[in-house]
Design a protein that fits this description.
By secondary structure, this protein is of the alpha/beta class. The protein has one domain: Alpha-Beta Barrel (TIM Barrel). It is built from eleven helices and eight strands. It has an eight-stranded parallel β-barrel with strand order 1-2-3-4-5-6-7-8, surrounded by ten helices. Strand 4, helix 5 and strand 5 form a beta-alpha-beta unit. The longest helix has 20 residues. The termini are close together. The structure holds zinc ion (ZN). Zinc ion (ZN) binds next to loops.
């Protein structure tokens, strides 16, 4: 069933579990992620990276259609939306939520741009995720992983002034593949979870370590963004099965299986398996 992001995340925050927001870029990945959620009786979030989507309006319709047909709560979020136009395109395409990431801007400009889009999105019945502090890139982890953490007092002020529905925080994760070992700052996460009134989001979930992710979900992360991890799982499935000769015809089934199996694993790890009701 098509559900709002805050409905899914509100229950996750209350129940001390996390829900994966899994990269979906076409019909196959949408179907694989929803099939995983139905098998695990789990809520799930379809995450559109924007860049991969050739046609955002079409993907919005595909996601809406499959989310409505699903027997478990499903919502969809357009990730990052780097420009004003990207965000409005996401609203127009039917996403239930958009992320408006202005985390590289100074605080006041971040507040100003996010607040403007929150007003527009909310008027259209769309929710907004934003980011404070900055989650950088894993391949630059030596620098990005240790700078620009979220400051709790600023996060409280930011949520109050912008009206965002959930907030991505920087507590030591990074996007993509890590060069170095990710180190998560759980004390900071706990403080944020206690003080910030809206559910918290973790970007850069892939490769952050199973123990770290499970603990982060228990301590207040309600949404974990996953991209690299599931794409890698689909590729590994092909490698394991050998693609010689006519075996190549099973390429899509295998990618589907790889995507689905990894999604199920994450639902169990984050604690949302069995929480569909
Ligand atoms: Zn991100």
């Amino acid at each position: 069933m098509l559900t709002s992001l805050s409905d899914i995340l509100g229950k996750a925050k209350e129940g001390h579990y996390g829900v994966p927001a899994i990269l979906t870029c076409n019909l196959m990945t949408v179907q694989a992620v929803i099939a995983a959620a139905e098998e695990e009786q789990s809520p799930v979030i379809l995450l559109c990276g924007g860049g991969q989507a050739v046609d955002l309006d079409y993907l919005g319709r595909v996601m809406t259609d499959w989310a409505e047909k699903a027997t478990v709560p499903v919502t969809m979020c357009l990730d990052h939306s780097p420009s004003f136009e990207d965000a409005v395109r996401g609203i127009h395409a039917g996403f239930k939520a958009i992320m408006v990431d202005r985390s590289q801007l100074p605080f006041e400009e971040n507040v100003e741009q996010v607040a403007e889009l929150v007003r527009i999105a909310h008027a259209a019945g769309v929710e907004v995720e934003s980011e404070l502090g900055h989650v950088g890139m894993g391949d630059n982890y030596a620098v990005d992983g240790h700078s620009a953490f979220t400051v709790p007092a600023e996060a409280v002020e930011f949520v109050e002034r912008t009206g965002v529905d959930c907030l991505a925080v920087a507590v030591g994760t990074a996007h993509g593949v890590y060069k170095g070992t990710p180190e998560l700052h759980f004390d900071l996460l706990q403080e944020l979870a206690k003080k910030v009134p809206v559910p918290l989001v973790l970007h850069g979930g892939s490769g952050s370590g199973d123990d770290n992710l499970a603990k982060a979900c228990q301590l207040g992360i309600a949404k974990v963004n996953i991209a690299n991890d599931v794409v890698r799982a689909a590729y590994t499935k092909l490698e394991e099965n050998g693609m010689e000769g006519n075996a190549i015809y099973s390429i899509f089934d295998l990618m589907f299986e790889g995507y689905k199996e990894r999604s199920q694993y994450l639902m169990r790890l984050f604690g949302c398996a069995g929480k569909a009701a």
